[in-house]
Every structure is written in structure tokens, then in C-alpha cells.
């Protein structure tokens, strides 16, 4: 019997099991291991979903990191075991069939977010603990003060039994009493502490207010203070504490002693430092990671007037090939070597190198002179990559593409700067790679909209963001509505309504034009059917014109899709006109014309759009399965003034008579005035379209226009 293949839920559970095995030994939880595993399942699920979500949510990773603290995984080992486990198994068990590179990059970002969430939650917990200690300290002060006035024996008991370090000194700073907890903290004997002066314990990291507060207290101007303070132990190591010092007054109210209560925070501080390091450095190369880089970039961009920044965004050329052919281990070693070399390129103060993920690195330079420095930095990086990298006895050539952004601080945010650098890097790549390019605002803007729109297109069709406007086609003879042209628009969630010129070329480029065109065709044919049904008594049936892109012409499904739509909707083929631009048919061979010919034979009209702009051979018209010429708008424009341009008149007259002699109807586009309409009518044009009659609009508007004509 063969085992059933695992479902996603099984794999998720398996991941949670591995995770709990790795972390359980280092938790302080009172749960059993299976119970603990149950506790991790929802966290694993969140990670799994965040891994595959359409956009990256740092908050998800942070929440999981914070939840670890809630589950008593407060030891640094718990975090590193968790991160190791996520790194090794999350993509494997929860990645589904997504692209590996993208999943790995996402997993890395999730790990950083988890470490950050973990550190933050731990910090918050520590703060809460400190509050509690401060409260205890105040209580203790009361107890000790009472004790001083009461019997020596009772005082001793409190003093010795306390879990926090306590010492009593006189107002000159001479230490009189210390308890065992405090001695343990200092790791010394009583002699090493007692008899010494409080003021001996200065430390280079003392905050300036530490000793000011001390002076105020011993003068009697302050009852207590609370600081974080470091001490040297007798062996030279450093002890970090939360220190609360209180003034003890005698029965007469005169200041008499000072009482210090201290809590050892050394371990916690080390843990925090380590967590901070882990959260801000890349585990593979040891370079600062994205988080730290963005912190620095933030700071650099907020620097004062006269300061500038320069950024080199490096992406290795062909790294994927190396990874795929030599394996990930070799790829990793290459990255480590590259990281080392980059590090040596940016050693001056104000410079840093970071790894953003995958084979993407950044070098940052700050200061007043980055205009010249950033070029030198890019040169150093390119030079550093020249020497081949030796891995497993092979010499690997490393090349990279760099996008450079340089400018004054205070103008742009980090996200914008990085995006510009990214776009510029791609420009360097598409220019052949192994080079650097400088950012240019205009090129950025073009690429941003182009790139953004292109990637958003497929989802836009699924989400129904496209809609169609209809522009009436009018009989020049009697002004009646003859039909309408369907013109597609995109209601973009951020950019508002976009015209076809802004996205049809992109849709053609990506191939989305085929499904989009099919959608437009189906909608328009349905609309025509609705018009015809509502309007069956008002003259000849309304027709619908639909534009076809060159890509659709060569798509094998064109004829069958069109026939299918017409049949399903029940619209006669003679009510449909497909518009093909003249330029798409220049030099067309029989293969290209065959589908159009088939459609024409079935009764679908084919119009030659934008006629007169493509310089096609007029004699060629005879060969094309075309029944309508749509004269380009530029001819109509020549007729705007009165009298019209005589040359335009002659040309249009010539085209019209040629068309009619070939049995082709002539439609004119872009009619904006009554004078133009009249002129074109006199020249013998058959139908017209333009703002003079109506702008493209919703389908009901055509209905109104048609009704007005039918009744008036
Ligand atoms: P086109 O086929 O030449 O469409 C006519 C264009 O002229 C439309 O621009 C229309 O809004 C505009 N227009 C109409 N009357 C006037 C006027 O009196 N004055 C002026 N100045 N302009 C006028 P639009 O909607 O921006 O469409 C641009 C082009 O996009 C269309 O040119 C067509 O080639 C293409 N297109 C539109 N919808 C589709 C579609 O569904 N599929 C494909 N493949 N292309 C489409
Ligand atoms: Ca058209
Ligand atoms: Ca046109």
C-alpha cells in the first residue's frame, strides 16, 4: 500500500512538531511537549499564511515572535532555535507550490520580523518587571527604615532575606552594610565592598544625571531616585543593575543614611543585545540586514541641512544560474565571499554595507560630499568583484548591476529612495548588466507606472476593474444612431480611471490582451443584444464595434471564441464589426488574413481603423476582407477651421471615392463640430463618430441619444 500524499494541513502539523521539538527543551513552560506543540500550531499557521500572503505583513511575524514570550520561551536559545527551524523548514512544509526564491526571501523577512517582535515583547515584559521591583523597593524602604528604628535583629532578618541587593551607606558615601544578595551580584567578599565609598563606583557608561541625582539625595533635596547603572566587579567584569536609592532620615527627620536597592540586569541586557544583533544582522554573511539598513537610511535621510546621502543598490548578475547549477551551498559561499569584499569597500565613517536578501546588497554613504563619494564607492564595488571567486576548485566570475541614488537629505523617504535604486538597478541590468547607472526621476516615474500597472493587470481583470464606455456611431445622412464603438477603461484602485492608451500596450506586451479582449467582446456583444431587444421598433438594429489588437489577430482562438460568444448571446454576426488598425494589416500574408476572412464570410464586418496613418498601399485594399474604412482623426482635424484645408479635402474626397468604388463604407472619427460634420457629409462619408455627437459614456446614454433621434 502506498502512503497517501500529505495535505497542507498534515505538513503544517509536521512543521509544528519539528518546531516544538527544537524549542521545548529550552522553554520555561509548565506544559508537556505535546501540549506545547498544540500551542505552536496556531502560530505555525500564521507563519504559513504570512509566507504565502500576497503582500508581506511584518506585523504577522512580529505577533508570532511576541507570542513566544507569552508561551514562556524567553531564553535566547528559544529564539535562535525557532529561527533555525523556520529557516530550514517553513518553506519546505508550508511553501505550497510558490516560487522558491520568493518564498525564501519572504521567510527571511518573516524571521527578522519574529526576532523584532520577540525582542519588543521581552522588553515590555522587562519594563513591567521593573515597575514591580520599584514598588517592592519602596516597600522595602519602609520596612528597612522601620527596622532601623526598631531592633537590630529584625532589621537583619529583612536585610538578609531580601532577594534584591541592599546596601546602606552614610551621607559621605561610606558603605556600612551590604546584604548577601548584593555580595553575590558583585561576586566578591564583604571586604571588597564594605568600607569602600559609593563614589568609587563610577563607570564610563554612567548617564550624566546619575551623579547629579546622587548629590541632590545626599544633600537632602531628594527622597529617592531610580537609574540604570553599571558597576565594575572586583574581577573587572561589568554588572548592570536597576538601582533605586532612597534617603533615610532619623527620628528627628534629619537625613542620616542612604539605602540602595539593586537588581541585577546583566543577563537580560546581554540577551537584549544579542537579540538586537540577531534581529539586525544577516545570519549567512554577518552583514547588517534590511532592518538595520533601513534604520540607518532613516537616520541618514533625516540628517540636517547640507547633508546628502548616496546609495548603491547591487544585484549580482546570473546568481540564480550559479545556485541552480552548483547548488545552494556553493551559492551561499559565493554570497559570503561577496559580502566580505563589499564590506572592505565601505569602511569610512558614515559608510555601511548591508544584505537586503538573496543576492541583493546595498552600500550607503552619508555626509556632505556624497555626490563624488558615491561614484567612487560604486567603482570600488565593481573592482572588488573583478577577481573571480574560487569555490570547490572552480573560478566563478562574479558580475553585478548597480543602481545609484544620490541626493540631499530631507526630500525623500527611505521607501522611495530604495524603489528608485531598485528601478535604476534594473535599468543597469537590462542594459546588459555588469555596470552601474544613476537614478533619473523621469525614468523612475515611467518605470514605476509601467511596472506597477503591468503587474497589477492580471488581478485587475479577475477583480472586475475594467469597464466599457460606448461612443455612438451616427449616420451622416439623417443623424440617426447606427451603432456604437466599445472603448475599454480601467478603474484603477489608486490611479483612478485609466484610458486604453495607458494599459493596452502593456496588456499586449504581457499577453493579457487576449483574455481582456475576449472579455470586452463578450460584454459588448451582450450590450448590443440588450439594445436590440429594448429597441426593436426603432429602425435597423443597433450594431457594435469592437477593437482588436494585433496579438488577438494571431491568436488561434479568435474565430471560435467570436462565434461562440455570438451564438451564446444570440446576436447576429452582421451586428458585429471588428476594428483592426491599418498598421496591423500592412504586409499581412494570407495566414494572418485567414481568420478575418472566415469572420467576414460569416457576416461580421471588418473595419480598417485609423486609416490613413499607416501608409498602406491603397491597391492592397482589394485584397483585404474589409468592408469599412475608419478615417483617422487627423483628417477630421484638418476640417476644424473654415474654410477647411483644401489638401485635406482633396485627400478625403479621393479616399471616399476609392472606398466607394471598392464597395467599402467610410466612417470618420473625431468629429467635434457641426461644421466638420457638414463638410464630411458633403464629401460623401457615410457614418461619423466624435464629441460633437457624444463622448464615450455608459451604455444607457446611447439609448437616450437613439430615443431622441427616433422620436424627434
Ligand atoms: P480608436 O479605436 O481610434 O478609438 C477612438 C478614440 O478617439 C477613443 O479614445 C475615443 O475616446 C477618442 N475620441 C472619440 N471622439 C473623439 C473626438 O471627437 N475628439 C477626440 N480628440 N478624440 C475622440 P480612447 O477611448 O482613449 O481609445 C484609444 C484607443 O485605444 C482606441 O483608438 C483603440 O485603438 C484602443 N482601444 C480602446 N478600447 C480597446 C479595446 O477594447 N481593445 C483594444 N485592443 N483596443 C482598444
Ligand atoms: Ca477603434
Ligand atoms: Ca481609430
TrEMBL record:
Transmembrane segments: none annotated. Residues 151-221 form the PAS domain. InterPro entries: Biofilm_reg_signaling, EAL_dom, EAL_sf, GGDEF_dom, Nucleotide_cyclase, PAC, PAS, PAS-assoc_C. Residues 450-710 form the EAL domain. Residues 307-441 form the GGDEF domain. Pfam families: EAL, GGDEF, PAS_9. PANTHER family: BIOFILM ARCHITECTURE MAINTENANCE PROTEIN MBAA, DIGUANYLATE CYCLASE DGCP. This is GGDEF domain-containing protein.
